[in-house]
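Q: I'm writing a short explainer about DNA repair protein RadA for a general audience and would like to include a description of its predicted shape. Could you first generate the structure from this sequence?
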Amino acid sequence: MDANSSTAVATGIGELDRVLGRGVVPGSVILLAGEPGVGKSTLLLETVKHWAQGGRKALYLTGEESAGQVRMRAERTGAVHENVYLAAETDLATILGHVDEVNPSLVIVDSVQTVVATGTDGVTGGVTQIRAVTTALVSMAKNRGIAVVLVGHVTKDGAVAGPRSLEHLVDVVLSFEGDRHSSLRMVRGIKNRFGAADEVGCFEQRDDGIHQVPDPSGIFLHQRDLDVTGSTAMVTMDGKRALVGEIQALANPTSMTMPRRAVSGLDSARVSMVLAVLQSRLDAKLQDKEIYAATVGGMRVTEPAADLAIALAVSSVLNNTPMPHTTVAIGEVGLAGEVRRVSAVARRVAEAKRLGFRHAIIPAGTDENLPSGIKITRVGDLHEAVRAGLVGVVEVSF
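A: Of course. Here's the predicted structure. Afterward I'll give you a sentence or two in plain language.
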């Protein structure tokens, strides 16, 4: 085998290449899964455009839309090119015939659930059909050195629809995620035989197509030029990528027996735990207050490293004392009120420093080599964290 045949070819979209591991490997099969309407087809049209501009042929096969519909979208996003071939087809044999005729180096099948293998039992999109279609396309890709991208649907719980063997047959599995109320889109690596499986690529959906976002932290930060109560910056890790975001909290007096707890973009169970720790360990008066906690910019955070930022945002609003907008908080909060170590603190602090933050509050047990040029405060518990974070607070009082 030619050694060059296993060398990744850049797609021309840096964020996608980042997730794939430098680009597309000839002969590889990639499964791109996502909810309907999230922008999978738009991203792939952008991919074939850049692919064609590099002097390579790309074949786009659609089974869910007519060729005219896809061409209209391609014209709107500027993806029309003489090296991009388009066909609306669902028959597997005909699809393989198109590949023979065009001889492309990249084939897009949108979607694998719509393709039918004649002679194979089962309904379209069923387990037997999907397995037969995928096996044939994988064989074609390996034998001819053609990169193939399969578009897949997802179930209600976010898993790839179809047989589990579908994920085992392909080389790379990517998840395309996005909130309908946000323009941000994430391509997340789930499986990758050619690179790291925990990389994340960031994109933004606009009227003229989808655009990569090499520096997404700015989307997750509000206009942070003033110190306001109930707002705390934090740094989360999404795969290997450090993202700076903002957590906001609000507390309203209420006469309800069970005050409301509303959460957006955060793990509601972790927020409830942090509130319980504040009430128990810092004697925070929460029993007569509604608490609202949310991230900014559609960011979703589930890791424990956001605990400290949540606690400080709530403490800030309860004390009516702001956190400095140049301070970030990183750390997990334990049930005893201690601030526990988290992973990749050095990378998180470096990202905060790059964005202009001047002070980082981190767990006392952190032993990583941290970057210079930013003030570091190590705290062992929530009492120390509140005193270090809230402006002018000497004794914690709620």
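A: For your explainer, you could say: The longest strand covers residues 241-253.
Q: Perfect, that's easy to follow.
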